[in-house]
Amino acid sequence: DIQMTQSPSSLSASVGDRVTITCRASQSISSYLNWYQQKPGKAPKLLIYAASSLQSGVPSRFSGSGSGTDFTLTISSLQPEDFATYYCQQSYSTPWGTFGQGTRLEIK
Amino acid sequence: EVQLVESGGGLVQPGGSLRLSCAASGFTFSDHYMDWVRQAPGKGLEWVGRTRNKANSYTTEYAASVKGRFTISRDDSKNSLYLQMNSLKTEDTAVYYCARVAGELPGYNWFDPWGQGTLVTVSS
Fold this sequence. Notes:
Largest sheet of chain A: 7 strands, mixed
Radius of gyration of chain B: 14 Å
Strand content of chain A: over 45%
Strand content of chain B: over 45%
Oligomer: heterodimer
Order of helices and strands of chain A: EEEEEEEEEEE
Structural class of chain B: mainly beta
Structural class of chain A: mainly beta
Distance between the termini of chain A: 36 Å
Shape of chain B: globular
Shape of chain A: globular
Helix content of chain A: under 10%
Order of helices and strands of chain B: EEEEEEEEEEE
Number of strands of chain B: 11
Number of strands of chain A: 11
Largest sheet of chain B: 7 strands, mixed
Largest interface: A-B, 26 and 25 residues
């Protein structure tokens, strides 16, 4: 099975900061990589699909990049509503919903 | 509005059974693969399984951790997805989400939207 590893596991940042979260796959997954945001007590929400495509309605300060094994999610200027946990997920092979362990983004 | 609403969660004893439902609205349910994903308290997301659509013979796949115990089914006439959980273990305690599989190209699939989740607690 493909393993997904996110770094860091947690991150403290301030409003207005530029933040980057990394996701690494244990083997090449082309660009079959998605990013989700989850706030406490809520369901995950799709942010980025196919590594770099912004989901409709998601603010443009979110962006994704990468292919193969290394991927990044970048928030260009943190807003108060962005403090949440972020997960990457590969869709290259079964088990289809292999997620990273999550990155908790906290207010500094 | 595309919407998924889960129901059926609750407290069950180890070894017991429970059936979750997911009611879909706002899209052509029969066209889509549908998945279940769970999240244990304070933990990350774990994929549970998938049912494909009629065009793909309603085939199913399961995570190793639930295979042989859980069964996913669907009723396209009712726009509903189900998760039958048998031989439940304490480690199955989690919030269970249903999710629509979006994206049409092989491999280019993602979960959108998700339901609000339903809590299953397995405890004596």
